[in-house]
Design a protein that fits this description.
two-stranded antiparallel ribbon; 14 helices; 357 residues; eight-stranded mixed β-sheet; 10 strands; single chain
């Protein structure tokens, strides 16, 4: 019992230190990045606006179409390349895919004007164009993770000619799904509240982003994960993986002020993306314009993006070739669990390979 209390106290203290560090960084400009050493070698082939584009070449390339990963905006992307044998990028490379990954740079105070238009029609479109030029191809396969899935879906709807295949992973799409307290709260969120945040901070601070995520699974963040650490402390590599995930959990970055408002009000509160009413760069985003093959991947036990929010996406798009794949995991599991590396990513790679030319 004493050992359990000691382990719990140590883990809780470490988590508090990281939270306070995240708070400090949330008030800093620019945000300080503290990424671990990469597992898989890469080169930065493009940087403009607030995106760097990483290229992970496959040692034995067997797929003709490059795979473009649109990572989430809220945290650092090294979760997808965390440990040897537990790396999404490594798995895709071994399956013969050349991988390109967005590394979203934290917005500066002068970037508060940036919204969906700047990130999708600017940074994302330019990065895809860089891949098209580097690979001498007309289309890429696009995979979007969490909020990166929102960007990927918007891009695929506005620029369908550039997307060969689309994979969405834990996509928050239909916000009428109010089976999570945080989602239910959004319908009561007033625009004036968001305006108060941006008026005071310019951008949404990193500590506020972290507080929002922590609120989605309070019991897990406070107790469950430490109980799991104690019960599995003898498993080879478990403690190391736990420490890395905790480090990643504290890697929140600010959100550009305008984008924060568009996400909070237009997407989460008003559900305009699912209703085909979201305006980006003077155009309405109609997901029925997405007609490429679609694989919609859902975490069955996702505590951040409920499956009921992701499921309607497949029915909403105009694709004829579409599939929904449900995997028995939570929100982070698709990127970090050993079972996902063994089963989920070979399934995703196989689906893409079948549609390669």
């Amino acid at each position: 019992m004493i050992e359990l209390i000691t382990d719990f106290t140590r883990a809780w203290t470490d988590g508090l230190v990281r939270t306070l560090e995240g708070f400090r960084r949330g008030l800093a400009d620019p945000c300080i990045l503290d990424d671990p050493e990469p597992v898989t070698p890469y080169q930065v082939i493009y940087e403009e606006g607030r995106v760097q584009l990483r290229h992970y070449p496959a040692p034995d390339r067997r797929q003709a179409t490059p795979l473009f990963l649109v990572y989430a905006l809220f945290k650092r992307p090294w979760l997808l390349d965390m440990l040897p044998g537990r790396s999404v990028v490594e798995s895709l490379n071994r399956q013969g895919f050349d991988v390109y990954l967005t590394d979203w740079l934290p917005p500066r105070s002068s970037d508060r004007w940036r919204g969906f238009d700047a990130y999708v029609n600017g940074d994302l479109a330019d990065a895809v164009r860089a891949v098209q030029i580097a690979e001498d191809v007309e289309q890429v396969s696009v995979l979007g993770y969490c909020s990166g899935g929102i960007l990927a879906a918007i891009y695929a709807a506005l620029h369908p000619e550039n997307v060969k295949n689309l994979v969405t992973l834990t996509l928050p799409f239909d916000m009428s799904a109010r089976d999570r307290p945080t989602y239910a709260m959004m319908q009561h969120l007033e625009p004036e509240t968001i305006d108060l945040v941006t008026a005071n901070y310019g951008n949404c601070p990193a500590w506020m982003v972290k507080a929002g995520f922590d609120a989605m699974a309070p019991l897990h963040n406070a107790i469950d994960k430490y109980v799991g650490l104690y019960r599995n402390r003898h498993l080879d590599g478990y403690a190391e993986t736990f420490a890395l995930i905790e480090r990643w959990m504290a890697s929140d970055v600010p959100l550009a002020g305008k984008l924060f408002r568009e996400l909070a009000i237009d997407v989460f509160r008003e559900n305009r993306l699912a209703r085909n009413e979201l305006a980006v760069g003077g155009r309405v985003v109609d997901v029925r314009e997405i007609r490429c093959p679609l694989l919609n991947v859902i975490g069955e036990f996702d505590e951040v993006v409920p499956p009921s929010s992701s499921l309607p996406f497949a029915d909403a798009v105009g694709s004829e070739d579409k599939r929904t794949l449900t995997f028995r995991t939570g929100h982070i599991g698709p990127a970090a669990s050993a079972s996902a590396i063994r089963k989920l990513w070979p399934a995703i790679g196989g689906w893409l390979a079948e549609r390669d030319s």
